[in-house]
Amino acid sequence: MSMRLKVTLVITALVVCAMTLTLRSLAQTPASAPPASAAPPRPAPEQAPAPTPDFSKATWDLPANADKTKNPVEPTEESVAKGKELFMGKKGNCVFCHGETGAGNAENLPKLRRKPADLSDKERMTSISDGEIFWKVTRGIPGIMPGREKQLTEEERWQVVNYVRTLAKDKPAM
Ligand code: HEC
Q1: CA dihedral sign of residues 47, 52, 55, 61
Q2: Residue 114 CA: which ligand 1 atom is closest?
């Protein structure tokens, strides 16, 4: 083999090696890859969006003995009237789900994740204490019924309890 041919072969081999390395490194860092200093990349589109939480099994989380909590607010006409104002008004907005009679707001029912309890059901309502209603209104159920601990003072929540008590009605005789 002539010297010239040897040199040509070596150069060709080197060129092939260099091209292979270049192609491999290009394959590993696609041209679109952001520089290392750039902000973290957005999540890949195929990554599923955060799923909507499933509230179907959410329930009350009440303190132990919640039902034993005594109602410190007398159900006077004044307190019941205040409670009604809160129940119907924007601050309490119970009416949105429970409706004016407590039996449910038919208009909003399709928007709700769960059918509201019937606050006009006398049998049911006489079986639960003021304390239990108070704590249910205070805490609510995540995603189902908003707790009103922040919107209503303790006294206001008891006023609402006193108003809720007036909604229980005997079922009309069938
Ligand atoms: C977003 C709709 C919604 C709003 C607003 C709402 N509730 Fe409810 N409420 C519900 C649902 C749904 C339930 C039934 C929950 C369950 O037990 O599964 C319920 C249950 C209750 C119960 C329990 C009754 C029982 O049988 O144990 C009381 C008491 C009650 N609500 C009072 C209120 C009061 C008072 C307000 C306003 C301060 C209010 N709710 C606001 C949806 C709502």
Answers
A1: positive
A2: 12
Mean pLDDT by 10 residues, the chain (174 residues): 73 69 63 62 74 93 97 98 98 98 98 98 97 98 98 98 95 72
Full domain range(s) for residue 105: 66-165
Does 98 reside within a domain?
Answer: yes
User: What is the total count of domains within the chain?
Assistant: 1
- CB of 124 sitting under 6 A from ligand 1: yes
Answer yes or no: pTM beyond 0.85: no
CATH code where residue 77 lies: 1.10.760.10
| 117 within ligand 1 shell (Cβ under 6 A) | yes
Distance CA 15, CA 30 (A): 22
